[in-house]
TrEMBL record:
It comes from the Eukaryota. This is Carbonic anhydrase. Residues 38-272 form the Alpha-carbonic anhydrase domain. It catalyses: hydrogencarbonate + H(+) = CO2 + H2O.
Length: 279
């Protein structure tokens, strides 16, 4: 009897270790954005819509209970203008890329990263960029036609996202350069297509001013402590390019912008270079 109990105890211990190990696996990848599109939607009142993301999976709870969620509005009269944050120090390089239709968006992923950005002494590798239509962040309450997110990650898993806003106008030259690849994955035929070498420096920013605040990923698992830099200058995109990106949204909501999230007293800084060094 005692022996049997001991064996039972041993197998329980072994089982607990296995359970711990299995539980640790999803944690290790919590920083990565979800790629299975059909698990969540952008339908405001949908069963898996933005107000419910936090209930879909235990490790998505931040989506509902987090206090540092994105996107937010950037209200010019409430931001602190600073010059100490420093310019966006980007040292990007060309790398082979794959375009992925994630169902909820189009994503360009660089194999092995495409250089890096240095923020406050830490190096973050550029891993992917993707597009939201309309924009997720708003400036003084105004929502724009599109927002690009350039997602960077440090060796220890910290995330920096650079956001670029676009209004309807002249075509964006970067999207134009990958247009036929977008067309390849816009239909239902392929989910992924190899693009070849893509230089992220072709994604133009055109301004040194940017808003800085601490937020989260805007799709599940809504991981927090993401350092956001939203470029102040609004660029342009054509209607045709927007249409091409929208095709990727399969859930009929015709949008892949998460609603604005409460700020909970968070501060937003606006970085502006010192006088005389302006853009
Ligand atoms: C940019 O980063 C490089 C290293 O990656 C560093 O040597 C340089 O001082 C940084 N420049 C600024 C303006 O922060
Ligand atoms: C891109 O991939 C091709 C084929 O695998 C390879 O020959 C080339 O060196 C790669 N280029 C870069 C910049 O990584
Ligand atoms: C930069 O890093 C230092 C030390 O890691 C930290 O004390 C400081 O708050 C950071 N500054 C910003 C603007 O993130
Ligand atoms: C976010 O950063 C703060 C301060 O660095 C830290 O106390 C907190 O645990 C972090 N939260 C997460 C979810 O990483």
């Amino acid at each position: 009897m005692a022996r049997k109990l001991l064996m039972l105890q041993h197998s329980l211990i072994a089982f607990s270790f296995l359970a711990l190990f299995l539980a640790a696996v999803p944690l290790a990848s919590a920083a990565t954005e979800v790629e299975d599109e059909r698990e969540f939607t952008y339908m405001p009142d949908g069963e898996n819509g933005p107000n419910r993301w936090g209930e879909i999976h235990p490790d998505w709870h931040s989506c509902n209970s987090g206090k540092l969620q994105s996107p937010i509005d950037m209200l010019d009269e409430r931001v602190d203008v600073v010059s100490h944050l420093g310019r966006l120090n980007r040292s990007y390089k060309a790398a082979n890329a794959t375009l992925v239709n994630r169902g909820h968006d189009m994503m360009m992923r660089w194999e092995g990263g495409a250089g890096s950005i240095r923020v406050n002494g830490t190096e973050y590798t550029l891993e992917q960029c993707h597009w939201h239509t309309p924009s997720e962040h708003t400036i003084n309450g105004k929502r724009y036609a599109m927002e690009a997110h350039m997602v960077h990650e440090s060796a220890d898993g910290k995330i920096v996202v650079v956001g670029i806003l676009y209004t309807i106008g002249r075509p964006d030259s970067f999207l134009q350069s990958i247009q036929h690849h977008l067309e390849d994955v816009a239909g239902t035929k392929e989910d992924e297509t190899t693009v070849g070498v893509v230089d992220p420096r072709d994604i133009k920013i055109g301004s040194r001013k940017y808003y800085r605040y601490i937020g989260s990923l805007t799709i599940p698992p809504c991981t927090e402590n993401v350092t956001w830099s939203i470029v102040k200058k609004v660029r342009t995109v054509s209607r045709e390019q927007l249409r091409l990106l929208r095709v990727a949204v399969h859930d009929d909501s015709n949008s892949n912008a998460r609603p604005l999230q409460p700020k909970f007293g968070r501060k937003v800084n606006l970085f502006r270079p010192e006088e005389g060094k302006d853009d």
